[in-house]
């Protein structure tokens, strides 16, 4: 299954990922529309918040608007979404975003655009089996 | 435990084409659904099933300013539809159903409630009962803030409100089942255009119990996407289901336009959404360590109540039982299907509408069927279970299912059954009088059979269906006892409504919370046991009176807006205990102020919130008075809710009661040692009833009412509800009181 693997230690806060994401999906330079968010921790290092495709949200959604596609990526069907934002509140990574201007949440679809523009190789598209993914996601959470 | 097969149910929706072909349109009305803006469609629907009149009414600015919506609109319409002489079964009595401005948003937990208002068959005064399910929001997407149903139909009908087509019809419907789990499935199948459209259909119905008793409830359905089945939620209290069946309305079908993120066209979507995300996060992080609403629902309360001697046992004689472990929350958690978003409206991450799937029934007309049991919730477990001495979870599940599908209020039925079981214990009833039903404590078979009789309108069950208030009269009329005082003491009703399931003997504030009410003893207005008894936060009469002013009004506000109470304080922010008034959950009050401003565009502060409720609450009190009730005498509490009635009851908690004689009543220890149990009970009774009366005085004063519980004219003026028709009722009552020498200040 496919997801965006992050390596925070490589991130220098350039935020090219955020710009390309907002540009790709919303045709805007306003990075609040980005499904990946890079913030600075108190120690000056970078925190990358993005969907791990863990799928907790699938069972939370009351309208079954969330499901995995063939690649294993959790996709939002905007036609089914009723904008309750329960997925936002229950995301273990806080990687589902409620945007002030949108009636539905924003999440990463592992489209692969951001790794292409990251100058420090902090991002890559990973394609792993479920058990590996579970281990990686757990590791990722522990690391954070 | 049975080996349940999740999501396997006995189907009922197969032959709807034949059922539909038997329909005959009695009246039809085409309309253009009004757009909803800032929470209001500003239109309501009037349907007279007797005359066939269907029309749309405009919502006035005064209705919005004074009555807000939901329960407020219900009381407003009911007042104008009825007369002081109107009784529940007169054609002019109405059932008014409406949400409120916030009802139908999908961003915040508990925002899909409908409020149902009618003149109650058991109390004779307006009852309001709130319910989940999708009908309220779908009524709104059909272009209506409320629905009035008036008249009595000639034949069995369904009222169909099709907001997608812009048409309202009264259809003769001879074939559909009246029991709700079947009717809801049949009518959802009949009126949904296709599979995906089922979520846009909600069916309001009652059942055979509503037909043959005074304690009928309304069932509101919603289509559960994951179970692929219709589910039911209940407007339980006060017999509104009885009114529906008396009107020969088999069901009301609301087929609304699809729900999207912003059907209310709110003023500030971001503000509403942010409040919702805050609460979703609290639930995600803390529900498991707080109330476990997402896994157990209100069933989590069973062992807490048992531990604090508050779980009703044997008709509220006792507050705990050694067998209560058999109905504790972990038992229900195993029965409930887990991992499903069990909200009764979209966006409810509290998700407490749990269900037992594939439950196989043993008794009654559906024996052998596999069904969904919605719940049980705490009140149902207490009522159908411990209050009747029943600790078999499968009897409780069976009873819960039949109550729902028959359209019977589980709380009233539980308290009724407990009352008749105590009458059996005390020799007032026997097998000859009950037609062979052995109504002994814990007899689940008799408990269920009495319910089936009730639904058929037969035997002793038909008597039980009249409710505790009427049963007391019947038992005396039949000469089964001459002890009216005993019946009055153990009959757990006030104003004609049965008590809900908390033992209030050791909480004076809760005694007031139950009895000093507009509609009778329910847990909707005030639930102060923990605050009062366990935490001792309101020790004085004045503090209790303040709580009995604030909390009923705060809770009334949910009913004006279309909100559920549970997300207010069944989850708390982690720092809530550090706030000055944790019982009010200030952070969540702030959320509600965000919601009302975010939806309607009208900024409100917490004092304004209370003021909104105070208008409607006082209006409802005046309404009660208009119907010949509503004064002090009707706030009388049965002594069982106040103190120990029987010797065994006293002796079961003798240490506590003896200690109270010394600590609270002022008797000397050596004097207590010499007193007989009867003398101790008499001393308790004098003290307990005395302080209840003193509480009543203090509460009425705080509420701006006279000694006789009549809202004072100057108070009504200050609230801005000094309408001529309101003042006429109050002035007439005050004049009557003056003539009778009753205090009017």
Q: What would your notes on this structure say?
A:
The complex is a heterodimer of chains A (144) and B (745). Chain A is α+β, with helices and mostly antiparallel strands and 144 residues long. Chain A has a single domain, classed as 2-Layer Sandwich (Alpha-Beta Plaits). Chain A is 28% helix and 17% strand. In chain A, the strands form 3 sheets. Chain A has a two-stranded antiparallel sheet. Chain A has a two-stranded antiparallel ribbon with strand order 2-3. Chain A is globular and about 40 Å long. The model of chain A has no long low-confidence stretch (mean pLDDT 93). With 745 residues, chain B is of the alpha+beta class. Chain B has a domain of 240 residues: Aldehyde ferredoxin oxidoreductase, N-terminal domain (Aldehyde Ferredoxin Oxidoreductase,  A, domain 1, 4-Layer Sandwich). Helices cover 41% and strands 12% of the residues of chain B. Chain B contains 29 helices and 17 strands. Chain B has a 7-stranded mixed β-sheet with strand order 1-9-8-13-10-11-12. Chain B has a 6-stranded mixed β-sheet with strand order 3-2-7-4-5-6, sandwiched between helices. In chain B, a hairpin with a 5-residue loop joins strand 2 and strand 3.
